Amino acid sequence: MAPSHTVRILDGNNFVVCEATGDIEATPTEPTGLFSIDTRFLSKWVLTVNGERLNALSYDDLQYYESRFFLVPGLATHYVDAKLSIIRERAVGGSFREHITILNHDEKAVDLDIRMDAGCDFADLFEVKDEILNKKGEIYAEAEPDRLRLGYRRGNFKRETIISSSVPARYDRNGFAYSIHLEPNEQWDTDIDVQTLAVGPGGRDLRFGLQVHGTERLALQHDLEEWIAKAPKVNSEHDKVAATYRKCIVDLAALRFSPLSLGGQTLPAAGLPWFMTMFGRDSILTCLQTLPFTPELSATTLRVLASLQGTRFDDFREEDPGRILHEMRYGESAAFEEQPHSPYYGSVDATPLFVVLLDEYEQWSGDAALVKELEQECRRAFKWIDDYADLVGNGYIWYERRNTDTGLENQCWKDSWDSISYRDGTLPPFPRATCEVQGYAYDAKMRGARLAREFWDDPAYAEQLEREAAALKERFNRDWWVEDGGYYALALDPDGRQCDVLSSNIGHLLWSGIVDDDRAEQIANHLVGPRLFTGWGVRTLAEGEVRYNPIGYHNGTVWPFDTSFCAWGLRRYGFPEEAATIASGILDAARYFDGRLPEAFGGYPREQTKFPVEYPTACSPQAWSTGAPLLLLRTMLGLEPHEGHLAVEPRLPIGMGRIEVLDIPGRWGRVDAFARGRLDLHSLAG
Amino acid sequence: MADAITRFFEDLDQQGYEPLLAKISGALRFDLHEGPQTTHWLVRIDRGSIQVSREDMEADTVVGTSPALFEELVTGRENGLAALLRGDMTVTGDARLVVQVDRIFPGSPYARGPQRYRKGVQ
Fold first, then answer.
1. Which of B87, B106, B116 is the closest to A157 by Cβ?
2. Which of residues 70-89 of B touch A (CB under 8 A)?
3. Domains assigned to chain B
4. pLDDT tens, A392-448?
5. Out of the domains of life, which is the source (chain A) (predicted)?
6. Could you tell me the domains of chain A?
7. CA–CA distance from A107 to each of A9, A320, A673 (Å)?
8. A685: pLDDT confidence band, cut at 50, 70 and 90?
9. Looking at this predicted complex, what is its ipTM?
10. Beta strands A52-63 and A24-25, pairing class
């Protein structure tokens, strides 16, 4: 996706991707631009002085919502002669604002023509990597005395970019310009404001009343400071853990997103820049990872997903009653139903995970009111699991897309087309059932039983759910166990044949609790064994499988989020050393990315590459990668809510030194946790 | 036009309670514009209890659209959120109410829903 030398700033789903000079010149291979509500609002934004492009001396990402570029005119070889400097400072909030400063360092006065070329193709986010040749609507540009209006109209669908300057400018249809005179050592400034509008026929903006916080820079800064102050503090003997943690907290702030239906509350979007929207699976898993640190995200996520839970059958959106959504989008392709994201429901794990998150959230927060508030949604979720997801009629959750045009083939987290295979490398027919989803369903029923007993006053329902969970566990351990491998199959085909490859999904099974106790050790050994564990993390598919490829998206790369749930599972079944082994691998890898873990990195053995090789098109920061270090900290410190208290049972490797987590919020108020590395992991490393 | 729309609102009024709306309260007015004429439907929701009238009264949320599109919505042939994104339906006031009320519109009459697997049958 965006090459790594591009600069990104954002606030919610408003974001800018640009070159190191601050310029924007979008091409299919470099999809730069100013984006909002899944639409590009600027595809060209190029500053020139006397007709010359500028060169970057440096740029700073000051905060996630602001950056600053130091520029000089001319080519790189002219640096030493530069008599002018240009500073561009910009921020995104409700709008995009750029402050331009020009300094004359010469002993002579200068006359300058300053020009900004501005234009927009109004690409839908799903189009940005294509040549955009035939938009179905009409693109227009209107130069007014005090502003430039760029627009796109297709029926009643209208998007506009309004550009204005604090210093009067000459506007034309392709940009705006200034002619200025600067005495020696004089400076010139202007503020440029770029408004993005989604206007309906009545001239009202679709997003009216949606702002989370003030859009002014100071309000954004205040909001970020408050966010950081509210989160627990982490101190570590080795600075890297604390630094990674701080980075994650700031990135989580950046990833907060306020959906249309919630009037300002925020939940974690999936990833920057292309996934700044609500995803059922990503938002829930990120909340599970971050519960000990930022619990308010969970309450919002649960409420939003509940408020959009499916109510009817819709084959295009793959909606069913009780199903939790997969992805919501606001762009042209969703509006005109060229894509199904209004919202799209094609995922089978979000629904059981919704119940899992509600229970976990209650255990931490003690928020009984929310559990009562969402009782009907949980019952509908279970009904979906039992009545609509069991396509084969044998008590498992299956998927087969009904939208064969734009729907997802694989509706589990490994959603690429070739992620599910037999050991011989061939792909199974549909419907398919993947193992981790059965684990989530088991866990959801066990947790749902607790909620029914303690909060919904329905012990009969609790017993029913427990009976169903027990039967599922028994069935699962019979049908999915791969005898000659000593692990669970990745998936079943509709005739019951196992997709008998070794995969990271078995780690999620430990987390869910569906693994029979006498099999847990074999699973643990696989997770830290040479076929799955690279030294950095757990491969999505084991080395030695036909489809294994160290840079195969779901067929061999390491996903930090995936490994973090494997670690949680190991800890749950009493394998703290193994958990600490893979946890410290990921935390070591984080150092190479300045604390910001990418979506995925290569599955090469650690001793071979010495550093984690970033997966080529990975999105960053990505919510569940950002959540991974937080879940790993929880896992290594053994933080567990227990009968209203926070239990702390640290098991850290020796190299980790001392770690303290201060002010962990929960039903206990705020408590601190302290740990010291005592585990010798060398016995496991081989 | 209005048969399907009238039936939808009358059924809703008779139903009196809709569990899918149990978490919301507020008044939502649908303004259906056709040329110079506007038909109003006012839906008052009180934690799931529903009262429908044809009053042109102030509301927390006002939804504007054409009778033709609204008829498609209440018969499941069009999707409310897509219409909203397209600008074919507009909202003023609290957008949450319309997002919730959209959920009680029926599914498509042509939807197949989940299909049970039968060996050898595609």
1. B87
2. 76, 79, 81-82, 84-88
3. 3-104 (3.30.1050.10)
4. 999 999 999 999 999 999 999 999 999 999 999 999 999 999 999 999 999 999 999
5. Bacteria
6. 7-199 (2.70.98.40), 231-685 (1.50.10.10)
7. 36, 73, 61
8. very low
9. 0.96
10. unpaired
